[in-house]
Each structure stands twice: as structure tokens, then as C-alpha cells.
Amino acid sequence: MTAIKKPKFHRILLKLSGEALGGEGGMGISAPALQLMAEQIHEVRELGVQVVVVVGGGNIFRGLPGSERGIERATGDYMGMLATVINALALQDALEKIGSPTRVQSAIAMSQVAEPFIRRRAVRHLEKGRVVIFGGGTGNPYFSTDTAAALRANEIGAEVILKATKVDGVYDSDPKKNARAKRFEQITYLDALQRQLKVMDSTAFSLCMDNKMPIIVFDLFKPHNLRRVALGEKVGTLVTG
User: Fold this and answer.
1) N or C: which end of the chain has fewer CB atoms below 10 A?
2) Tens digit of pLDDT per residue, the chain (241 long)?
């Protein structure tokens, strides 16, 4: 009999960009992209891994480009945070349709559609086997959903942040523009910052660095990649101290 592999991680935080939910075009909500993500999360939950998701809202609205078009920056950021809640509800629906019980917690109070973010309640949901999706960013303008991911990962005691992208790790230059771009298997926070590799924004990065929270950057669009990461296989790039 083949031995069943045990997951390397007990509790993970998955950071999804809004653009990833938008599929190829990166805009709106793509049903196939949503289905793919839900299936990968469900697969990992079935291994017994506790899964927390922080989702972005760039497929619907981004605060910074909005402010460049004349919307006040703080207002634009709040609009972006509301977009993340729309994405969180879409992902919740997709997950529950395939049998993964899910709770959405929002940093902005909206009791009709989501629970407020309460750390102890979120941890209790995880212990009961539910997937917890955090919407609403940090609840504050001027902070990205990357920062929300770093903050929540530390608050709820996740062992790692898994940053889902459309490329298979961190490169020294854009692999879409440079055929000779070199992929890192592992890199330190400091090195990534000095090289300005844009793994996460500097606020999120500082939070991870100060609290020794490892980040794995990987391609979620390859089937079963999330499961492979959870089992401890070498997928993507590990950013660590």
C-alpha cells in the first residue's frame, strides 16, 4: 500500500488577487477561474489543512487608479474594499457548491452578507473545518490586500502565506518580457526588497519580515498546485528570513 502523504502545513493563508478571479482578461468574475480556485481550495481542505483566504478586488475596482481618474483616494480605496467582499461572496458560493463549508468575514461591517472580522471566531471556524474568507481588506484606506493578508496571517496563526499568481514563482525580471529571466527557488526578504522584486508591497513585506512569516509565491493556474504546496513539495519560490 502507498503511504498517504501528510500535509506539511496545518493552517495556511491563501492570498488571491482579484485579477485571478477575472480569468484570462483579469476583469469581472470568470466562472471557470472561480471553479478552478474553489476546487483547489476544496482539495487542500480535504487533506485536513485549515484554509484562510484573503481576496483582492482588482478585477472590479482599484483605489489607486480610481484616484488617478479623479476619485478621492480614501473613497476609491473603500470602493476597492467593497469589491473584495463581492469576490469573497462569489468564492464562498463556488466552495459551498462543491461541499466546502465557508464563512466570509468582512473588515467593513455589513451584517446582512458577512460576519464582522473577529479573530477568535475565525479561529473557531477553522477548527470546525470551515474555510474562512476575509473580505474588506484591513478596513482602512491606503492599505493593500497584500497588507491585509500579512496582518491576518499573523493574527490567526497561519504558518505560511501562499501568494497565488499567474507565474510559477519570483523572477529577477519579468519572464513575460525577458526569456532569460531567472527564477529563484528561495530568496530572503531583504534580497527581494533590495532587488525591488515586487513580491508584495513594502508594508506587507515588513509585517512578514518582522514576524518571520514565510511566503510561497506559486502558480495557482496549474492543476493541483495548491495541494502540492500544502504537501511540502518544492513549488514556486519560498521567501524567508
Assistant:
1) N
2) 455 688 999 999 999 999 888 888 778 999 999 999 999 999 999 999 999 999 999 999 876 676 677 889 999 999 999 999 999 999 999 999 999 999 999 999 999 999 999 999 999 999 999 999 999 999 999 999 999 999 999 999 999 999 998 888 899 888 888 888 889 999 998 888 888 888 888 899 889 999 999 999 999 988 899 999 999 999 999 999 8
Residue 86 DSSP SS3: helix
Q: What's the CATH code of the domain at 38?
A: 3.40.1160.10
200 in Cβ contact with 215 (< 8 Å): yes
Predicted TM-score (pTM) of the model is: 0.92
Q: Indicate whether 3 belongs to any domain.
A: no
Q: Which three cell numbers stand for residue 152?
A: 491576518
Give the cell for residue 217: 509565491
Here the cell at position 19 is 485579477
Cβ pair 159, 10 in contact under 8 A: yes
Full domain range(s) for residue 182: 11-240
Tally of domains in the chain: 1
